[in-house]
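Q: Here's a chain of 335 amino acids. Please give me its 3D structure as tokens.
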Amino acid sequence: MKQIRNPMPVVVGASAGGMAALKELVAQLPEDFPAPVFVVNHMGMHTTGEALVNVLNGSGNLPCAQAHDQQAFKSGHIYLAPSDQHMLIDNGKILITKGARENRSRPAIDPLFRSAAVAYGNRVIGIILTGYLDDGTSGMMAIKRCGGVCIAQDPEDAAYPDMPRSVIANVGADYCMPIAGMGALLSELVTRELPERTPVPEDIVIEAKIAQRVLSDLPSVEALGHQVPYNCPDCGGVLWQMEEGSLLRYRCHTGHAFTSSALLAQQTVKVEETLWVALRMFEERQNLLVTMSKNESKQSPSSISQRAKDSQVHIDRIRAMLKATGKDLHGEKTE
């Protein structure tokens, strides 16, 4: 197939439960589907993604492969974001970057969606499928603001309804439906007539450039929001708060980005890590004090034994906090 000069890209985001959802979606696309399909499915940094590629190749009519940097894309092909890297699109090519994590994920959905909105405006069709929390909501908002189409899986149809539910609540989906109806809809949408593109909002352009690592400085972030008294849980830098409707988001100047839900979940993870370090240090201190108390002179009074007992009080408190934090962390639905 020839490279597309004026593509109508379909960008898809999925997370927990994504393999089954994507398998059902691509099975509906015909062999002559006249658009490229770009997929971000959250995965661990050590996951190759080959299992999903094999499943999608065996489920539908379109060839699927992991994307490569500077690769020219074609219609009738599915491109999967590789693990631990963001996938962006621009000027008929795929960009694979090692940009900062967004919403605790790399690859993340938002960077792909924003890059598509900036490059192709009202020609973009965005789809959000099953998953925890709300990655993809801000990116879908960018697509919507640039005139593109927003499709959300019906939460009742999703194995994990958080992501489509967030899009519906914060963006307002043009279409909310079960996956079973998306194939026919996509075939109709990719052949529709479109009006002229409108200019892309500057804040979307800035964020898209940050994902490409073209911009990562204080002026660019200050143009997006205002500084708040929180620190980035990934790098320790200060955060800027951005408001998109009712959606609160945060960025640091190095590029990390979070929705409020993702920030809270990552803060909880960091709190737990800190508590484990504190527990180790108190236990080591207590062990040293016990050793010292055994070697101290029986003739001279000492507070070492009492200090060891006091350390046990702190150890018990930290263990109680860890138990409570574990329950809170479970409630955050981390992926």
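Q: Can you summarize the key feature?
A: The mean pLDDT is 90.
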